[in-house]
Design goal:
Residues 1-249 form the EAL domain. By secondary structure, the protein is α/β, with parallel strands linked by helices. The chain has one domain (2-240): EAL domain (TIM Barrel, Alpha-Beta Barrel), CATH 3.20.20.450. It contains ten helices and nine strands. The chain has helices spanning 2-9, 50-60, 62-79, 93-97, 101-112, 133-144, 160-166, 176-180, 185-200, 213-221, and strands spanning 16-25, 33-41, 47-48, 86-91, 119-124, 148-154, 171-174, 204-207, 226-228. A hairpin with a 7-residue loop joins strand 1 (16-25) and strand 2. Helix 2 packs across helix 3 (62-79), helix 3 runs parallel beside helix 5 and helix 5 runs parallel beside helix 6 (133-144). The termini are far apart. Bound molecules: guanosine-5'-monophosphate (2 copies), manganese (II) ion and sodium ion. The site of one guanosine-5'-monophosphate has 12 residues, from strand 6. Residues 21, 37, 90, 152-153, 176, 208-209, 211, 229-230, 235 line the site of one guanosine-5'-monophosphate (G).
């Protein structure tokens, strides 16, 4: 339909872009990591939300070209921003399952001269795709390139727990709904349980959706490794990165 047609011309017509949202490391206090988020606009300039176009891109296979474009763009943006230590990129399980994906990533790293250790790939537990040996092999190839593997939106799907058993994620991102629900005793207990579960398995923890001073204080009290959310900073284009910090609050 409409979006599918748009996705076919998105790269060549410059309809797709990336914004970067800062991630703060609470241990060091540094804002030296960012998450790359894709933006798609229609021909009239109106933005299409990712919740609409990513599923279509996955269904039509357009995610493969868009994904390669995103990784290449992230790498070239990083060359101009030495102070950004790490960029996390959302990667669909469809990409991981495509033969040659890790090789094409290695090619992009080689051409741009960016070290794999400056990238993390965020994987969201798939709705329609199960973890299988192809994906596991791809993940181990990516790790050999130095790329970190993060689990995104943990706690929102059905597969998260089994993925934790199968994959040694560097960092697990706890979905923002758990932080937003922690105003009630039940919600707070749930957040603490999830944190304990992830921590006891040896993964670093990033909590998403930190919006207030109170939430920030709670994250410090809980010893959370990294935080992300409007309190830390909103997504911005690479051109507006600050010199010392990826993004101004
Ligand atoms: O800002 P926000 O609405 O962009 O992001 C919503 C969701 O869209 C993200 O959490 C992520 O799951 C997805 N998303 C954003 N950018 C990308 C991308 O480049 N690739 C993939 N596969 N998903 C993305
Ligand atoms: O990859 P993921 O689905 O987590 O993408 C992050 C999404 O969450 C993006 O759409 C981004 O705009 C949104 N987001 C980031 N920080 C906040 C926040 O503090 N509050 C809310 N409500 N949304 C946020
Ligand atoms: Mn993400
Ligand atoms: Na997320």
């Amino acid at each position: 339909e409409n979006i599918a047609a748009l996705l076919k011309i998105a790269v060549e017509r410059d309809l797709v872009s990336l914004v970067y949202q800062p991630i703060q490391d609470l241990g060091s206090g540094r804002f030296d990591a960012v998450e790359a988020l894709m933006r798609l606009k229609m021909l009239d300039g109106i933005l299409v939300p990712p919740s609409l176009f990513i599923p279509v891109a996955e269904r039509t296979g357009a995610i493969l070209e868009l994904g390669r474009w995103a990784i290449r763009t992230v790498c070239t943006d990083m060359l101009a921003h030495d102070h950004v230590r790490l960029v996390s990129v959302n990667v669909s399980p469809i990409q991981l399952k495509t033969p040659g994906f890790a090789t094409s990533v290695a090619g992009i790293l080689g051409e741009t001269g960016v070290a794999g250790s400056r990238l993390a790939f965020e994987i969201t537990e798939g709705r329609e795709l199960e973890m299988d040996s192809d994906i596991l092999r791809c993940i181990s190839d990516l790790k050999l390139l130095g790329i970190r593997i993060w689990l995104d939106d943990f706690g929102t799907g059905f597969a998260g727990l089994s993925w934790l058993r199968l994959i040694d994620f560097d960092t697990v991102k706890i979905d923002r709904s758990f932080l937003h629900d922690c105003g009630t005793p039940k919600g707070m207990a749930m957040l603490q349980d999830i944190i304990a579960l992830v921590r006891n398995r040896g993964h670093k923890i990033l909590v998403e959706g930190v919006e207030t001073d109170e939430q920030m204080a709670l994250m410090r009290e809980f010893g959370i490794d990294k935080v992300q959310g409007y309190h830390v900073g909103r997504p911005v284009p690479a051109a507006s990165f600050q010199t010392k910090r990826p993004v101004q609050k």
